[in-house]
């Protein structure tokens, strides 16, 4: 379009010069033949100018059409984009998030083996909405609505129920609101994590999606085979392994203090009289990253079998990729003559970028869980985990193996071997 305009200006300049010559020749009596030639040149220049003006008008129409198409495309992209979340409160910042975590689980109870298609309970399929408002100063008001929907929970499927296991419905994880006052701390109200939730699960290995201190999440529903009776027992993996991770999620009111040199103190109260206290610590010391937590929890009338418990965990990650994790706890059971339960769990791992996909994490672990389901029980486990992060896809592919052994006064139980592989995709 710029070239067309330049040509028009040039021809108009030529036309002006020719007209000037004609005027001068007419004034001084130029012969008719010369005037005819000049008039012919003028007519040619005028015709060319008119043609180029029409071309310029057509180009302007095309440019405007392209602008309109671009505006429409931009509007459609803004409307169709998953990140374009509209809210009724213009001051609110809203984030939608979630994940799908599906796996194949193989289990051998010493008598028979089975294959299950499961939802990985180490980190379940879920969706959530997080909303925050900053009214001014150091204050923040927030809400969190998060639900999970698991089909064939990996911690529930067993030899008798291989499919269709679980609620087959949405289950609440967080229905929560909070006010964060900065220097005065954070107050939370609703269904959500109690102060002690997660204190037994500090883990910097990068492999917790397929194995960590909560042993029953992988294959907790599998029943032990009793060799004395040559039949499946009623005892499953989940009942003899517990990492005593506080009070979990519940309807509570919770307070978290501001961070003091990496330390944060927390407490919560449950409506039926339960409560807990916890302290967490995070730090980067030279080449080491540290995460630690400990908690005392008293479930009160919310539990029929537990009086109170104390548990904690610590995890360390070195810049080289080597890492270690340790967790332990003790539990006071209700009922006369019942022994206290206890556990310890340890993990060693390594993380490195060995391929362009992302970080590869590997680990091995071991744990002993005693007197959990009954006095005299000793449940041992060891396992191997591998997780490949695929950054471009927001995906983690994983493989895990776990050995479960139960020494009990109630029977002679065969060990259970379990292997699980799958993928977790986050958005």
Automatic annotation (TrEMBL):
- Signal peptide region: 1-29
Q: Which domain of life is it from?
A: Bacteria
| Coiled-coil region | 35-76
| UniProt keyword annotations, A-Z | Coiled coil, Signal
Cross-referenced InterPro entries: Porin_dom_sf
The molecule here is called: Porin domain-containing protein
Q: Which organism is it from?
A: Desulfosarcina alkanivorans
């Amino acid at each position: 379009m710029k070239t067309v305009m330049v040509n028009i200006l040039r021809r108009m300049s030529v036309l002006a010069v020719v007209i000037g010559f004609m005027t001068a020749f007419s004034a001084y009596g130029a012969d008719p033949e010369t005037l005819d030639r000049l008039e012919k040149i003028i007519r040619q220049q005028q015709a060319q100018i008119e043609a180029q003006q029409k071309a310029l008008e057509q180009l302007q129409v095309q440019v405007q059409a392209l602008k309109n198409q671009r505006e429409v495309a931009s509007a459609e992209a803004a409307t169709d984009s998953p990140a374009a979340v509209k809210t009724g409160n213009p001051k609110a910042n809203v984030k939608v998030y979630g994940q799908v975590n599906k796996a194949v689980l193989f289990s051998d109870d010493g008598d028979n083996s089975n294959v299950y298609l499961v939802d990985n309970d180490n980190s379940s399929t879920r969706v959530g909405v997080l909303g925050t408002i900053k009214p001014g100063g150091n204050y923040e008001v927030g809400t969190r609505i998060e639900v999970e929907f698991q089909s064939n929970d990996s911690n529930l499927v067993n030899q008798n129920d291989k499919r269709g296991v679980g609620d087959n419905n949405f289950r609440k994880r967080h229905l929560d609101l909070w006010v964060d006052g900065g220097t005065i701390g954070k107050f939370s109200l609703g269904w959500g994590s109690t102060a002690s939730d997660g204190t037994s699960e500090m883990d910097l290995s990068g492999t917790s999606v397929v194995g960590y201190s909560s042993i029953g999440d992988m294959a907790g529903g599998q029943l032990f085979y009793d060799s004395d009776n040559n039949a499946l027992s009623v005892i499953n993996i989940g009942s003899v392994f517990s990492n005593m991770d506080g009070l979990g999620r519940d309807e509570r009111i919770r307070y978290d203090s501001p961070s003091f040199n990496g330390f944060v103190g927390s407490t919560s109260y449950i409506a039926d009289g339960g409560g807990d206290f916890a302290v967490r610590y995070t730090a980067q010391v030279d080449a080491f990253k540290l995460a630690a937590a400990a908690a005392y929890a008293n479930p009160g009338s919310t539990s029929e079998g537990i009086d109170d418990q104390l548990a904690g965990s610590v995890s360390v990650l070195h810049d080289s990729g080597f890492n270690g994790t340790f967790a332990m706890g003790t539990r006071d059971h209700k009922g006369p003559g019942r022994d206290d339960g206890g556990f310890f769990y340890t993990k060693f791992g390594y993380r490195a970028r060995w391929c362009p996909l992302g970080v590869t994490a590997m680990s091995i672990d071991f744990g002993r869980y005693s007197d959990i389901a009954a006095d005299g029980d000793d449940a041992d486990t060891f396992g191997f985990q591998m997780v490949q992060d695929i950054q471009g896809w927001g995906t983690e592919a994983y493989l895990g193996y776990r050995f479960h052994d139960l020494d009990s006064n109630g029977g002679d139980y065969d060990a259970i071997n379990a292997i699980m592989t799958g993928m977790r995709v986050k958005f």
